[in-house]
Amino acid sequence: MRRLVPALLCAALVLAVVPVAQAGTEGKFLARCGYSHSRQDDPIVRPGKPGQSHLHDFLGNATTTAFSTYGSMTGSPASLEAYRRFLAAAGRGLAAGGGLPGVPTQCAPGSGDTASYWTPALYRNGVKVDPAGAGTRQQIYYDRSNLASGTRVEVIPADLRVKTGLSTARTMAENPEVGREIYWGCSDNSTKGKATVPPAHCPTGIITLHVGFPNCWDGVLTHVDDTAHLAYPKGGRCLAPFGHPLPRVILRWEYPVGRDTGLVTLASGSLTTIHGDFWNTWQQPSLARLVDGCINAGRDCGRT
User: Fold this and answer.
1) Do 4 and 12 meet the contact criterion of CB atoms below 8 Å apart?
2) Across residues 120-129, what is the average pLDDT?
3) Which residues pair with 30 in a beta bridge?
């Protein structure tokens, strides 16, 4: 009986850290992260240079600014001061008591997702539309759907910083991921294919934007901008020198533009400039448990 107790405790711990899963399916999980804030900052492209970027909408980590560091984003002692600066810039103060319960994030409580995700702000007929409001949901898919079945993926390295899409593109041809890894639709999935522009009309009045990041890595981590060290798979495989398969990360944004979509533009310019950024500042043990317990285990763990 005494020998059974440690084994039962271990089993209970595993069940506690991995969400209830559906076995026999391709491994994946879904992060729920709401809209946090908008700033003319880009900590990957222009770190330490506030106000020198076009306006971005940020999901997840509420402390993200041009001054953010890996330590401040993950909850080091500098995190509180970074968040104070953010609130001060927004004309707000900390809540009564001034406490900081963990890392401020719009991701699901207890998920461990303190990462940051951003894209250029969206405008309808010249008026900014926040990715928020009734009927909207912002989600991030983590899976291995663009890799050969059964491929074992590595955990996304801590502090990996990657962008996809070209903010300076003048034509769709100059931004080749549009229509492939970056595409538009309706929130009810009533549109087919991967549209290069938003639908003119959506029954729900909500358009969607999907942004998929490259997930084959060459093993180099710069702690600045790792985009050049990542590539998309070819034929479901990560080819040399990008031989490290990582989970596929896809942002899914929703914008309540109304049933008549109108003229959509971006803070970076026309629709040809669409792009997105991902900074892995997850609580790394939580991410590792989900990658191994869901994706590599071939389990659909649903929403975290």
Assistant:
1) no
2) 98
3) 141, 303
